[in-house]
Write a structure and sequence with these properties.
It is a single chain. With 141 residues, the protein is mainly beta. It is 10% helix and 32% strand. The protein has helices spanning 2-6, 11-15, 86-89, and strands at residues 20-22, 30-34, 38-44, 53-58, 62-67, 93-98, 109-113, 116-122. The chain has a 4-stranded antiparallel beta sheet, with no helix packed on it. Strands 2-3-8-7 form a 4-stranded antiparallel beta sheet, with no helix packed on it. The protein is elongated and about 85 Å long.
Amino acid sequence: MADGILGYPYRRLFWSPTLYRDWSGSAALMDWIESPIAHIFKVNVPGFSKDDIKVQIEDGNILHIRGEGAKEESPGKDTVWHLAERGASRSGFSREIELPENGKADQIKAQVENGVLTVVVPKDASPKPSRVRNVNITSKL
């Protein structure tokens, strides 16, 4: 019963390293979709080019997506700003996602189009050996 309520992916929120970390302050929102063959991450990155975005795998299974925005040059010292909202959203973002065990980290593909970064992590179809191992109990050690 506990596996049903706190099974994958929810048990990671309580007993494992952080599933999803965000240090952005930006509005780079993300969706995570799982299909039968892949995990698909879609991140809003309006105004970022592919050169502004880095997608990396760290520690074997941590997908790190970050974007660094270029600052716009000031129009001049005699110019008075009344409102500056666009520049704030281009300050950058960073996301870390712990990939599931069935993700093939060596076959990840990424593409940015129309302000959306799509990262596809293929799934490993072969079953993994069970992590549970029975230990024989004896009366003496």
